[in-house]
Amino acid sequence: MSFIVHGGRPLQGEVKLAGSKNGTTKLMVAALLTDEPCTLHNFPSIGDVAITAELCRKIGSVITIRDGSATIHTPEIKQNKVVELSRRNRIPILAMGPLLARAGEAEVPILGGDKIGPRPVDFHLDALRALGATVEVTKTSYLARAPQGLRGASISLPFPSVGATETSILAAVLAKGETTITNAALEPEIISMVKMLQNMGAIIELGANRDIYIEGVSKLRGVVHEIIPDRNEAVSFACLAIATGGEILVRGAIQDHLITFLNAVRRVGAEYRVVSGGIVFFRPGPLRAITVTTAPHPGFMTDWQQPFAVLLTQAQGISYIHETIYEDRFAYAEDLRAFGARISVAYECPAAQCRFFGKKCNHVAAIEGPVELNADGKEFHVRDLRSGMIDIIAALVSKGKMRIEGVDEIDRGYERIDERLRKLGGDIKREE
Ligand code: EPU
User: Fold this and answer.
1) Which of 114, 235, 325 to mutate to test the pocket of ligand 1 (most atoms within 8 A of CB)?
2) Can you give the chain as a three-state secondary structure string?
3) Which residue among 229, 312, 372, 400 sits deepest, i.e. has the most Cβ atoms within 10 Å of its Cβ?
4) Is 303 a catalytic residue?
């Protein structure tokens, strides 16, 4: 499947955010912790959710989706070994906690996901071991056993990993006794999961310095929960408005989730207005070069740097993006160069405290602008979800007409993106 994009005009109007991809999939897994129904509102229709629904159904969930809401009901765990599942995302490992709690044993496939550098799961497995599980890594799977149930423990994460924090929480809520997670990730999607679990009957406290305290309970009940809007979509639409010189009201954008991004918007010379129900993004004058460094929340999120890079191609001077979460997240630079962008990537890093300092991984990008993008007649192949989205953004900023192939990867995380972009005035067509 492909998109044909004819770019070069400002995008205007308003767009409503879908429910967060990286929130929804984890909440679906959290629903496995109870034998009662859990209803999720603002449920997005995206590929990653379909992949996660397949996982939950294999495990024993009955899922009903209607009018933007989903009910996930798992009266019993029918299958606690789900190795034969597709490896298209990174969600299965999160099911280890619920499966261990309800079945005493769990086996899930080695993970897939975007190709953005090594993505080990040692923190997840160490957390499960700390909680009393035995864990074996086979050629194709992770196999964990805790026949007597998990017990509370002290888990210290070497890095505030989103997934490992989620694994720790999902495993600890039904464990016997108290768990402390130190150096936890505190992304809005994690706080949303904590709120859902709290309403299911869990006892979870957020302490200072990235500490999370959990008092295990013996049973959780059903819940009705509202999924938070997707802040990555928000950033993509914001960058589109600014880079094309248009103005977009992003309905559902929440200032609390975007504070660092909003500062970057202002520093680069663009602007935003927080209004009732959303945030408007626009560009009052020329853009200027800045440096951004990605970091765990509340820092500048790694998933924001790709759309922001397109915007930086339009800024006067040399901008830098210093990526500190993933070792290899600049493969998209090659695509931007094909659009005419001046972008180079290097491993020399300015900050001795950077976790990649001295490592030969290309985690610093320099972007010189402004450049008029033009990829008339070219064809692009989507590399991964976020860099696929920047192919679209760059194409809409560029002069000329181009084709983007492999867009089902973009559908994994962005709901009906072509339809919504057309409503903003984008000339984008889908071809089967
Ligand atoms: N890490 C380890 N060992 C582990 C876990 C993580 O070394 O056991 C390292 C990773 O290699 C990486 C860093 O810790 O260098 C951070 O990884 P993290 O665990 O936080 O990432 P994740 O949970 O796998 C989620 C999102 C990503 C997002 C990151 C960072 C989902 C499904 N994925 O990944 O989203 O970039 O957090 O915020 O929630 C995307 O949506 O396109 C995407 C890649």
Assistant:
1) 325
2) CEEEEECCCCCEEEEECCECHHHHHHHHHHHHHCCCCEEEECCCCCHHHHHHHHHHHHHCCEEEEECCEEEEECCCCCCCECCCCCCCCCCHHHHHHHHHHHHCEEEEECCCCCCCCCCCCHHHHHHHHHCCCEEEECCCEEEEECCCCCECCEEECCCCCHHHHHHHHHHHCCCECEEEEECCCCCHHHHHHHHHHHHCCCEEEECCCCCEEEECCCCCCCEEEECCECHHHHHHHHHHHHHHCCEEEEECCCHHHCHHHHHHHHHCCCEEEEECCEEEEECCCCEECCEEEECCCCCECHHHHHHHHHHHCCEEEEEEEECCCCCCCCCCHHHHHHCCCEEEEECCCCCCCCCCCCCCCCCEEEEEECCCCECCCCEEECCCHHHHHHHHHHHHHCECEEEEECCHHHHCCCCCHHHHHHHCCCEEEEEC
3) 312
4) no
Q: Which of 200, 226, 252 is the last residue of a domain?
A: 226
Q: Summarize pLDDT for 370-407 with one digit per residue, the tens.
A: 999 999 999 999 998 988 999 999 999 999 999 999 99
Residue 209 lies in domain: 21-226
pTM: 0.96
- CATH number for the domain spanning 141: value is 3.65.10.10
CA 162 to centroid of ligand 1, rounded, Å:
6
Ligand 1 site: residues with CB under 6 angstroms? 22, 90, 114, 118-124, 159, 161-164, 185, 301-303, 325-326, 385-386, 413
